[in-house]
Amino acid sequence: MRKDYLQSFNPVIGSSPNSLILGTMPGQESIKQHQYYAHPRNVFWKIIFKIFNGNYSTDYSKRIDFVKENKIALWDVCSTCFREGSLDSNIKEEFPNKIHQLIQQNPMISIIIFNGQTAEKLYKKHFEYLENKKYFTALSTSPANASYTFEQKLENWKLGLLS
Questions:
Q1: Which one of 10, 42, 70, 132 is the catalytic residue?
Q2: Closest of 153, 123, 128 to residue 138, by C-alpha
């Protein structure tokens, strides 16, 4: 198997989630640690804890419990792909996850939030938007998205998660 062949993680899903956050594909650090958003400069977890007034934790199991408690599901648009490095722009030959099936099995999901424009672009490539669902493209929390400050990203994510 080629070294740049990647497979996504299983979804994180608690009982009756109302939001689904979709990334593209875990980066190298996330794959190494087998954790969503594991890169130390990715601000995803800091944003989530801040928005929902939680005590920030670096403990992955506490992070997962926190998103579940706040009715958030996590997954990626891509099930598999080829990608050198961690940049979304390097994703090739992607095969999508069964996102609509997950939404159908969890009808309380009312909003789908894309973690960055590439996640939205890949979703649109493989899926139609579903009726009766809201979609929001948030600023990528990736360290590669350095043109926005933490505060700008935080305010943007609040629009998606709290609207």
A1: 42
A2: 153
